[in-house]
Amino acid sequence: MKKLLTTLALLATMAVSVEAEQKDHRSMLMKDMRTMLESMEQIQRGGLYSSSDEMKAGVKKLQGTLKSLEGDDVKWILPKDQKYAYQFAQKTASMLRLYSNDIVVSIDAGRMDDALEDYNQLLKQCTSCHIRIRNW
């Protein structure tokens, strides 16, 4: 009887710690998602006001958050019933990095129209991921 109670107490403690860990991962990832949104707004604002420095700052901020999408931590917020979700998130992160790097290259080359087109491609990646994975 003592062993049974001890085992049940241990299982309950483990369940609570797993749930707490899941909430920590989810809250960290959701914070990164908010930062991504702020980054996209900053890039857009920089483009609309012809501020290449603001656009580059937004790109740097965005790229700082991509680690959470590129790693295994993203699995904490992805739907469990969608087998392709993890690979799709990885591909989206890769494309976000590619287009954000292109923004900086375009700005440095003095091609603001290309930089804004790259921003448009970034936005399409965000939208695509939210539509497919989040079922919006």
Overall description:
The chain is an all-alpha fold. The chain contains four helices and no strands. It has helices at residues 2-48, 52-70, 85-108, 112-133. Helix 2 (52-70) packs antiparallel against helix 3. The longest helix has 47 residues, at 2-48.
Q: In summary, what is this structure?
A:
The protein is built from 4 helices and no strands.
Uncertain parts:
none
- Sheet with most strands: none
Number of helices: 4
If you average the pLDDT, what whole number results? Answer: 83
> Whole-Å distance between the termini?
50 Å
- Secondary-structure element pattern, one letter each: HHHH
The assigned structural class equals mainly alpha
Total strands = 0
Query: Rg to the nearest angstrom?
Result: 20 Å
Beta-strand residue fraction: under 5%
Helix content: over 70%
Shape descriptor: elongated
Which helices and strands, and how do they pair?
Layout: H1 2-48, H2 52-70, H3 85-108, H4 112-133
Helix pairs in contact: 1-2, 1-4, 2-3, 3-4
Structural descriptors:
82% helix, 136 residues, single chain, mainly alpha
